[in-house]
Amino acid sequence: MTTPIPNPPTVPFLGNVGAIDSEVPLLSHNLLARQYGEIYQLFLIGFKIVVVTTYDLLSEVSDEKRFRKFIASSLKEVRNGVGDGLFTAFVPGEENWYIAHRILMPAFSTLAVRGMYDDMYDIVSQLVLKWERFGSNYKIDAAADFTRLTFDAIAFCAMSYRVNSFYSPDLPPFIQAMADFLTESGRRAQRPGVVNTLMRGSASKYQQDIQTLMSLVDEIISERRANPIEKKDLLHVMLEGKDPQTGKGLSIESIRNNLLTFLIAGHETTSGMLTFAIYYLLKNPDTMQKLREEIDTMIGDRPMTVDDVHKLPYLIAVMRETLRLAPTAPMRSAAPLEDTTLKNGTYAVEKNQPIVINIFVAHRDPKVWGEDAESFRPERMLDGKFEQLSPNAWQPFGFGMRGCIGRPFAWQEAQITLVSIFQRFDLVMDDPSYTLQLKQTLTIKPSHFYVHAIPRNGKPRLLATPSTILSQDQNATTTSSQSTPSTGADKTVPTQPLYVLYGSNTGSSEAFAQRIASGAASHGFRAHIGTLDSATGRIITDGPIIAVTASFEGEPADNAKQFVSWLTSLQGEKLKGVSYAVFGCGNHDWVSTYQRIPTLIDTVAAERGAQRLLERGAGDAGGSDFYDSFDKWEAELWQTLRKVYRTTEASGEGGIKIETVESGSSRAHLLRQPDTAFGTVVQNRVLTSPGAPVKRHLEFVLPQGTTYRAGDYLAILPVNPPRDVYRALARFGLTAEHEIAISASGPTSLPVNKPISVFNLLSGYVELSQPATTRELRILAETQNSEASMNALKALTPEEVVAKRLSILDILEDNPDIKLPFEKFLEILPSMRVRQYSISSSPLWNPQHATLTISVIEAPAISGRKEPFLGVASTYLASLRPGDKVQMAVRSSNAAFHLPSDPSVPLVLFGAGSGLAPLRGFLQERALQAQAGRDVAKSLLFFGCRTPSEDFLYSDSDLKEWAKLGIIDIRPAFSRSTENSQNCKYVQDRIWNDREEVTEFYKKGARFYLCGSGKVATSVKEKLTKIIQETQQVDEEEASNIFGRITTGRFATDVFE
């Protein structure tokens, strides 16, 4: 008895067409695999496909005695251009394939490809020369330049034809026509034939693209016949070669078809592999450091030679691991030779039934690759492990007799390219927070992936890439080093360099670094500001280095990973002559990893010979003196730097100047236009009852090309509440229509040298509600004011300011006699920060949409002011209406804070209030998997709120439905209605009450996830430790140690304040 193959719900006449994204079909298939598991079927217009996604089924359909390559509908359309070329021929059935395969196979042998080395090196040198000449500020489109490289290489090495694409700013017409041709072929495959006929515009463009492709092919053939050469290249073999079995040569039509096949397949897949390799190496700097060490050790500064090919084991491992995670041809098709079954009779498939193998997903099967299958780890390909893999586990080049004929060519080309690049350059991402986006034709490549190539051993050149894409100027086309400009308020430009480096994900460290850089000129320094990664490999000795960075669960920020990896790899006194200081941001709630990265940088730098200018500073975001601790450290920093470098403190005017441009009714501001950084509000509704603290559910259409996983964050760039903006305008006697232009004597996060309305400036560029720091109080005291105001300022203690959350604006309103200039007000305000919210949905629900579940902060001001305190981001989000545009970006959460790939693993979830957000995403994904027929374990949810009727979020909708589905057991704790929750007031109380169930879930192998405040996290951990103490009869200290050991890899937290 066979099992029916599951499929998504169908639409009449269209079937499952709507289930597949037309731009990047692979993403839809990946989500379907996560939802339906090892196999599913899709009913498309006029035909059905079966899709398999696991190693077991991949291996089974790789049996060439039972299955053959199937030319899928998209490849049938590609035949309109390439005919019966090697990749698209019907086998058996078309004799030309057999003749061409036997003639051309020797031309791509390892020995033959070895003879192409010099020509390959020639083309790679052109890429290197371009990057050197354009310099480190040039934003490189990695996929485009690797496409140039591989296209030029196949044309020159195989056909002795120079395309010279590096000598033109635009890609060759062939490449654009090829991309359009492949894309349209895929779309034509999804449409009925009559529709393709009626779409005359598309059909005409399609034929034009085919003609563009064939015109180059004919040009290459004509030039060779007119000017024969002695070189026995691939084109020579095509023109002159004879089939050893039949004695036949290739017909002119077969030559044209296969020449075009090689021009397409010979560059498209390799350029994708190279781009993915750079991406994964930059995202995993420890692997890049190992690769660089291997290249430096085995090749050094000498040119790579043909004898070096295949001699760098770690490089080979990097390439294999890249193709495991990103097989550039991510899907292939097969069909049974006869009626058969799969998986020992479980699933029945008929003869010639198209079976699509999702290599992309199968390459992540935990059965073969382990629980870290999603991680980039080249070590899994080293020391004989690759050779010991199960048969068919690694299939990026296809399979069997229809496998890629050009694999040796691509393998050698990629080695030369990667060695040449890392010999000469340090690479950094243009946007360190970039997460992989895909573009797809028949192959896949990273989309919108840009890098900078910094020549090694050059002068210091820092790239001030923002800590988040949301901080970038949407109109900027390049990212450059930011240094003190030669124009501005101070006409005397300091000459002593100062390098300010930051590692920041959420913006706090970047804001502190910006403050140091902005104030540098007034202390006699010329500041350069950049990310820590931008200084990777740079030994800077002509000025002090100030590093401001944070730890994220013990790991570096996204834009500091490469630097930390490089720093920790140094030996001896490599940093002798370097002077530095470090300030670290952290949160004491993360006891075991608090200040780990700042401490590491500070310690290692000193051990490697650098001179520490002053003791490391530490700011605790979980305490009340976060900003004050930086103020004190910064004051000591400037005092130390002036003494060591003998600079003088500038007196008089501040760092920025303002001139009035227009104060009439018109506004001059840049309108925010919808682009890839903007999402759209779909829904914004209240989840709680009147009178309860407001919780809201928001749904967004994500920016185009954005993907996410359950558990990830949505970073929002908010604006200040209009009420607070108008308060600031009134305090300084300005109107909302007032326009100004700002000039600055140092790096600033404010918009400079262009008109902007004061309302927009105060709305979006500065924080108006942040508590004043000791430094800012001192500045107010030094400003002209009355005796009464001076006394009021003297009476304020830093502790009182933090406790009452008194902002600079609050203090200025309470003390109207303080004559603080508006430009000074702007100068001392911190920059607007992004806020990260846990996504409360799963992409299985809707891959283009994401939801947030937020608490709206509107509470009586503890400062005693009449107006309530308004949370900046939550007030902004609460005000949004459907259709509004919101600047946003998806940010990955901690790697551990994602669901296990196996849905049969139980979950124990802890959350309170809006801490339910990511847990809802987890449960939504599990529910959809259960509805798709997968084996889903039950989850235990501990949730805390006030009462069942006020704020039991989603209790009458999602949670109720999922409980009926049998995937969740809800254990609430009602703080104001304990009689409805087993007399348990808080989550930790309910955990203790239900400790037997918690223990039972642990024994079943459950994963534990917690989302909530630091207080909730501490209380939950204490109760779990107490359970261990009781069950194992040990003291508290031993129970704590046991907790740490047994929860490693099984307990993930997402703590917020």
Automatic annotation (TrEMBL):
SUPFAM superfamilies: Cytochrome P450, Ferredoxin reductase-like, C-terminal NADP-linked domain, Flavoproteins, Riboflavin synthase domain-like
Name of protein: Cytochrome P450
Record's keyword terms, sorted: FAD, Flavoprotein, FMN, Heme, Iron, Metal-binding, Monooxygenase, NADP, Oxidoreductase, Transport
Matching Pfam families: FAD_binding_1, Flavodoxin_1, NAD_binding_1, p450
Region (Disordered): 470-492
Compositionally biased tracts (Low complexity): 471-487
Similarity annotation: In the N-terminal section; belongs to the cytochrome P450 family.
Domain FAD-binding FR-type stretches: 674-900
Cofactor: heme; FAD; FMN
Taxonomic source organism: Somion occarium
All copies of domain Flavodoxin-like, residue ranges: 498-638
Record PROSITE patterns: CYTOCHROME_P450 (PS00086), FAD_FR (PS51384), FLAVODOXIN_LIKE (PS50902)
